[in-house]
């Protein structure tokens, strides 16, 4: 028999449970009252462009129903006494907010997120639920269009304040050697479903010939496809096309030199500057974290390579690109000397038992990001005082071991991605005691940049939706100005 249902409202709106309908049980079954408690939480969004999950089924007979009033405040959780009495019983819940009612059937008909069904065709709000059946935990969040989710935020939002989903070795969606492929779907599909950080590794094709500017996409020393070389220029065309269609968005691109041969970072930097990233209408290459308004419609460069001496004179001799050159290797937590990047990139999972350690490090980095409170210039900098620097918290949910099948990227992602969805839904930025006074002192609940493998596999974008959803507190603060 299942435990009583916990409902977590990860939206900025108060929501009330108005009605419970129990199906597949005896009509004479009695039900107890409802109790609740509150705790501080955060918020999520749903990708309205993705195929909808199966809607709540229409019952022919309601064997037992109960009118209730369970109020769940914004960013709060409630323990209820709602639970099926048998494995064959389902519970249909009716939620109400701002005069609209929406219905949901539990247990949900899919392991992925499920859309709530509006009772009225004129409803303006949309909600989605993630039902963690093993924990009897239901998470509610608001729906948004992930093609243009950055459009909800102000131009003066520091880019590092946002919760941003990313992908690791982003273009490695092709048929490739084991451990080389890290993604289930193509970069354009990633962008359409909310991903805004790309991790790219390149190898100069002919570094000693200044007339040739080819940059081959690689993963380590290997090409990303067994069917022929793939090039950065073609990938950038896809990114530009997306940004042209969605000018409210930006794409953060981390570039690193890998591959074979004797090319140098200095050569790579000159090729990028002279042939790829020299257009200020397409690229943001200042050596600092931008505000969102500066980055809309552009690629923001994070460089994991050294500069040619000529580029060290750019931007008033401050350099070129956001500096992540001295990126600590295989680290659970380290800050680059520039102060612009704080990274978790522990990747040497040599045995499957070490996956739990990777999950732990990933959760700890989420907690570091959650404690930050964005300094909004219009709200907090009226005296002309520079805000404290908030770095990009970059959190790699990725690891592999070429020699062990159970530690290939897709195998690790199959364990790590659901664990992080669970963490975000139940525990991220949630205070244990639920003290509302403490809730005001916590950060914005950001995740930072969360870099994933194998998102979108079989249409499952829940991890991306959860990451973007953690922007809700920040968005609510911005709306108050």
Provide a short characterization of the protein structure.
The chain is α/β, with parallel strands linked by helices and 481 residues long.
Question: What does it look like?
Answer:
The protein is an alpha/beta fold. It is built from eleven helices and 23 strands. The chain has helices spanning 187-192, 232-245, 265-276, 292-295, 314-317, 355-370, 377-380, 409-426, 436-439, 462-469, 472-479; strands at 6-10, 15-23, 45-47, 64-72, 76-79, 90-97, 100-106, 114-115, 117-118, 127-132, 137-144, 164-167, 197-204, 215-219, 222-223, 251-257, 283-284, 299-303, 322-323, 334-335, 341-344, 392-396, 449-452. Strands 12, 13, 14, 15, 16, 17, 18, 19, 20, 21, 22 and 23 form a twelve-stranded mixed sheet that branches. Strands 1, 3, 5, 8, 10 and 11 form a six-stranded mixed sheet that branches. Helix 8 (409-426) crosses helix 10. The longest helix is centred in the C-terminal third of the chain and has 18 residues, at 409-426. The chain is globular and about 80 Å long. The N and C termini lie far apart (48 Å). The model is unreliable at 26-56 and 433-441 (pLDDT under 50).
State the low-pLDDT regions, or none.
26-56, 433-441
Q: How big a fraction of the residues is strand? A: 15-25%
Helix content: 10-25%
What is the tally of beta strands?
Answer: 23
Distance between the termini: 48 Å
- The total of helices stands at 11
The outline comes out as globular
The overall pLDDT average reads 87
Q: What oligomeric arrangement do these chains adopt?
A: single chain
Q: What is the rounded Rg?
A: 24 Å
